[in-house]
Amino acid sequence: xxxxxxxxxxxxxxxxxxxxxxxxxxxxxxxxxxxxxxxxxxxxxxxxxxxxxxxxxxxxxxxxxxxxxxxxxxxxxxxxxxxxxxxxxxxxxxxxxxxxxxxxxxxxxxxxxxxxxxxxxxxxxxxxxxxxxxxxxxxxxxxxxxxxxxxxxxxxxxxxxxxxxxxxxxxxxxxxxxxxxxxxxxxxxxxxxxxxxxxxxxxxxxxxxxxxxxxxxxxxxxxxxxxxxxxxxxxxxxxxxxxxxxxxxxxxxxxxxxxxxxxxxxxxxxxxxxxxxxxxxxxxxxxxxxxxxxxxxxxxxxxxxxxxxxxxxxxxxxxxxxxxxxxxxxxxxxxxxxx
Amino acid sequence: xxxxxxxxxxxxxxxxxxxxxxxxxxxxxxxxxxxxxxxxxxxxxxxxxxxxxxxxxxxxxxxxxxxxxxxxxxxxxxxxxxxxxxxxxxxxxxxxxxxxxxxxxxxxxxxxxxxxxxxxxxxxxxxxxxxxxxxxxxxxxxxxxxxxxxxxxxxxxxxxxxxxxxxxxxxxxxxxxxxxxxxxxxxxxxxxxxxxxxxxxxxxxxxxxxxxxxxxxxxxxxxxxxxxxxxxxxxxxxxxxxxxxxxxxxxxxxxxxxxxxxxxxxxxxxxxxxxxxxxxxxxxxxxxxxxxxxxxxxxxxxxxxxxxxxxxxxxxxxxxxxxxxxxxxxxxxxxxxxx
Amino acid sequence: xxxxxxxxxxxxxxxxxxxxxxxxxxxxxxxxxxxxxxxxxxxxxxxxxxxxxxxxxxxxxxxxxxxxxxxxxxxxxxxxxxxxxxxxxxxxxxxxxxxxxxxxxxxxxxxxxxxxxxxxxxxxxxxxxxxxxxxxxxxxxxxxxxxxxxxxxxxxxxxxxxxxxxxxxxxxxxxxxxxxxxxxxxxxxxxxxxxxxxxxxxxxxxxxxxxxxxxxxxxxxxxxxxxxxxxxxxxxxxxxxxxxxxxxxxxxxxxxxxxxxxxxxxxxxxxxxxxxxxxxxxxxxxxxxxxxxxxxxxxxxxxxxxxxxxxxxxxxxxxxxxxxxxxxxxxxxxxxxxx
Amino acid sequence: xxxxxxxxxxxxxxxxxxxxxxxxxxxxxxxxxxxxxxxxxxxxxxxxxxxxxxxxxxxxxxxxxxxxxxxxxxxxxxxxxxxxxxxxxxxxxxxxxxxxxxxxxxxxxxxxxxxxxxxxxxxxxxxxxxxxxxxxxxxxxxxxxxxxxxxxxxxxxxxxxxxxxxxxxxxxxxxxxxxxxxxxxxxxxxxxxxxxxxxxxxxxxxxxxxxxxxxxxxxxxxxxxxxxxxxxxxxxxxxxxxxxxxxxxxxxxxxxxxxxxxxxxxxxxxxxxxxxxxxxxxxxxxxxxxxxxxxxxxxxxxxxxxxxxxxxxxxxxxxxxxxxxxxxxxxxxxxxxxx
Lengths: 339, 339, 339, 339
Description:
Four copies of one chain form a homotetramer. The first copy, chain A, is an alpha/beta fold. Helices cover about 35% and strands about 25% of the residues of chain A.
């Protein structure tokens, strides 16, 4: 039974994602309320805080974490700011939901890993929200059930309508393919051991200098192979497909659901334009699950090890992208806390 | 902006549906908490109340409604008990979410209609949860957009794995087809003016004396035609399909979504076994929307007029079922409050 | 083993359908060649005949049937001309493939039935080509296999982009719904015993005076119910759907196959514009099966009884359409030849 | 207009494929008849010849080709026998449909290429039947139309229920992936310039020593990337999927069509067990198109250059498979005859 008192949450970062999480916590999620918002932009923090009763604005994460009415922390600031906020929260022994990436590189992720180990218990969940998507959950259950035997290959498709102009080749790996890295590890229960990035002739709709689409191959510790088509400027909508090839069957998710229309000589339906709409329910489920687990004193979602492993695979991916060759992934030994 | 204080809700009736709503209000819905549960079975009420802090058990709905911490009422008792609870709640001027049916017949529904009119403002929402189902919402939006022109026909399929042994011919209309009555009225924005029930040779899996499946035709005030296949013992799962035939296109909802499996010489996926799983999200959205609207002092969902109209169409349907002929639906004039 | 000599075929009627069958027989079908074409328009017949070596033009069907090189007859003239041609062919004891309808009414169909009975063996196949469509064949096999138990209901959808301007209300029954009459009888193995035609408010795209769409109910001798949406001006393409509701499952055919495109914010594909494209393969299979059976001296397809039964049901349908009531179908006793 | 006389065809090889082509030519194809069958097994040839009037059995291809009633040759003998038969046919200047592979290696394919060049006109079509499959044709048309812009990537899936026990790793490339090689070249209108074969941990259902599944990457001359999942023992049926990723959209073929069944808690349908059933229509269309073109004195299908290019890519594929590295494809200059 959850405790009666609603969980007081400090939301760090009030950009697009942070503001959306404040809305979610106030109006969708049961058992939590936002008691603090933190942003280096004081005005933005204040505007957001004023709209919610009992919510205080801060410009320093540490100050918010020290407040009496803050029970947990949701980090939605830019990646480079994560390490400091995570270390602060671990210092206060506060539960954290940290938007992906955990940190921008493996070395900093390793420092967070060490800090949590020193604390001696798990406090941090990383925001890999696909693990909370209905279809991915069904796929995971099916694979875990053993009904189809061992998984041999995974085929991923990850298509975006377009990318903001400041998006780079590296971000295709670090911000987009990172999701496939995580679901590959999660679905298979295996670490990724090598990455190869291929670059076909780019679409003319990509900005100059960007290789788009790219095709990424993952090898895993027990020999499974996963491929990812990452396409930043497909021009027609947001699509995330996955197909698992197993010993006794194959299974596919991501086909568009919903009204099937017949008109103007065509059958079919609408494609979601972006990840906000496509994964809206997944974000809701992720945050609700985190609030529920936190109130029970548990961490049930992807943790620091998952954030660290993703960072290490991303580093290998970016190297392969640059040098056009297969790159081995080097991971530290998995600490007992994460086994 | 919703008020800060969570809405205190009295749940009347603690059977399967009532207990599920208590769970929903406590763990899923934001901005509400259950402060009272009412059941003539005192033990059942007490057990449920004890599991939630700040929740009191009652055996009388009127007593619960008089309590300081009760701001709104959710009625989930058996249909015959609805009228008294509704009149009590209207007497206290309390917002109500009443599970369908509003009341079991048109005459009693009319009395509730009159009581709310006397009160002078709308307080009651009826639990037609399909209006909160994602696919039905998309269908409604598409029809309202005018993109496909006027709707000419609706084809409904409503299939159940099986029915409890005490289910009757009349209940196929009153408890099952009532949903198609409501969505037909809602999707088209037209009243139903006549009903004809056809009975093909029954399946051998139906209990003796039950005509299952049945095929129901609705005529509407502006000449649209809607047909309903109601099948109580289809034997393979729960399916709800709808197809709208419009002047410039057709649109279909209800095809099973998600993971597409290939194994054992077959492609395809799983069918939901029951309405609880199929419409779980719709129930969540319905109750959240009701809580949100109530906190804003509004009624936004289907109201007493919709409950009354459904009751009147059901009466005509049961008569047609019995006498094997087309039966006209008689409705009182629509009061100004519901225009 | 078919005989070595190609079957010499007289094609009667050289309109759209007749000319298409000449092309089919010359270029697609194995084991047959067109040795005669007959049309009251001598020029049209001559032009067609001149294009094929060894093919003679006639203006009289009887003359063609008397020719040495004519082994079988394909009738593709307008319906009112069928009876005379059929009686001529039966008089010559020639195998016939007669485009639907067999004849335009039950009385004339009965005369053909009597003529074939007098002949003492079956010679005539009627052109209900849906029986040769891959999907209908799979549906029929599935129903016959008993895997799903007894069929309780059939739902048919029959939509056309538009109809020629001279198309009438009666033709919606006689030329369009007649296909659903035949497949209902064939799929269920039951005669149709009553017809009711419903007319919702028509689409504004139908010509003045035409009730379009219409909704037709068939009752069958063992209590199955079949409904047909016939829509002459759906405006977006040609669609033929069927769904069988059985004791242990349901099965649906007619969903558009083929490339699934994602572009411009939509997923989906193309709808065939007309029956020629939709049933092109079915026509090929029908004519090939008829040629093969004829060379073996057999009749394997739908026969005169099927043509007669369709004519009788059509008469009842047109009466129901006119008078707005359920009309019983009266059939003569089924002769031994057709059991 | 085709000539009146049916094309007399010599079928060389009377194994599974050859016998099926004899049946096809006798009973399905218009305008052709089998006048000769050739097999080193005299009894088998004789049995087959005796079943068709006017058909002679031979044990030597050259003797059959010299016969008066042989106008064209269909080669369906084992691959190693193709070169001799092809050179014979070219020596007689006879039209040939040669089942894939053209020849088992690039060197022998080059000798056929030179022989046809010496002859000075094209006579040989290679049996890449996927080019005649309805879905592939629609995909090709869509790509050629330019509607979706340039193709950037192709994703192929090629799954077999199981393989005969004598099937080898090399045959996965030479007999299975060869189809994807051809359709990749055909769909894109580009040569394949490099091949890389990946071998995930094999399924336990593959015979010892076979690496199954494998994952093959093709690079093409203008930078497109194509990947192929080849799975010899998927255990559930025969599936061939293709997806083209273009600048303005994506398009997918190969989803199973046909009756959609709901029963036993599952929706879906049947998967074809083998290529014979899946590509039956494609074989019919291929042979009919070849017969029609031959009667017009043309070659319209894939030719010797396509057979040679496939052989060269296969050689590179087998090398990559053995050595676990990317292998460049070396092609001779394309002769004028094939431009």
